[in-house]
């Protein structure tokens, strides 16, 4: 009985890890992510949802219509460094990473966490998000 229970427990754990691994694999391959989180802007805190779209050496960050968004979809952000597990991106007026960056982001592809910061609005502006692959509905 104890052996059967241990076998069932091991099977459940293995299945859970398989589902978790598949979700992470989708995040690593995805060109478009939907990210939801909390933004702290000065003394104010609010929820936010954004979409990241990766292409070549840049990422477009856009907010949901009607929400106070951290980033506008009109600007493209340069990917400064990218590995299999993470990506760092910035928007600067000089178009060089690390040079007068006013907006930046760090994405951990493994766990799906995203941190966005802005220094062009006076008050400190920090967003902490959880991301998942965008789900498209075909018509």
Please sum up the structure shown:
This protein is an alpha+beta fold and 139 residues long. Helix content is 20%, strand content 47%. The chain has one helix at residues 2-29, and strands at residues 32-41, 44-55, 58-63, 76-82, 86-92, 101-108, 113-118, 125-133.
Q: How does this model look, in words?
A:
Residues 1-25 form the signal peptide. Keywords: Signal. It is a single chain. The chain is an alpha+beta fold. It has a single domain, classed as Beta Barrel (Porin), CATH 2.40.160. Helix content is 20%, strand content 47%. It contains 1 helix and 8 strands; from the N terminus they run αββββββββ. It has an 8-stranded antiparallel beta barrel. A hairpin with a 4-residue loop joins strand 6 and strand 7. It is globular, with a radius of gyration of 18 Å. The relative contact order is 0.19. The model is unreliable at 14-28 (pLDDT under 50).
CATH architect. name? Beta Barrel
- Largest beta-sheet characterization: 8 strands, antiparallel, barrel
Mean pLDDT: 76
Name of the CATH first level = Mainly Beta
The shape is globular
Secondary structure elements and pairings:
Elements: H1 2-29, E1 32-41, E2 44-55, E3 58-63, E4 76-82, E5 86-92, E6 101-108, E7 113-118, E8 125-133
Antiparallel strand pairs: 1-2, 1-8, 2-3, 3-4, 4-5, 5-6, 6-7, 7-8
Summarize this structure as a short list of keywords or feature phrases.
139 residues, alpha+beta, Porin, eight-stranded antiparallel β-barrel, 8 strands
């Amino acid at each position: 009985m104890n052996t059967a229970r241990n076998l069932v427990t091991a099977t459940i754990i293995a299945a859970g890890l398989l589902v978790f691994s598949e979700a992470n694999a989708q995040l690593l391959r995805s060109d478009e992510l939907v990210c939801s989180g909390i933004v702290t802007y000065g003394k104010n805190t609010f929820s936010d949802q954004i979409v990241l779209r990766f292409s070549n050496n840049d990422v477009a960050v856009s907010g949901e219509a009607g929400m106070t968004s951290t980033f506008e979809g009109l600007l493209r952000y340069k990917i400064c460094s990218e590995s299999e597990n993470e990506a760092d991106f910035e928007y600067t007026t000089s178009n060089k990473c690390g040079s007068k960056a006013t907006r930046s982001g760090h994405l951990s592809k493994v766990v799906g966490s995203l941190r966005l910061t802005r220094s062009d609005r006076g008050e400190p502006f920090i967003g902490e998000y959880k991301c998942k692959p965008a789900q498209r509905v075909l018509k």
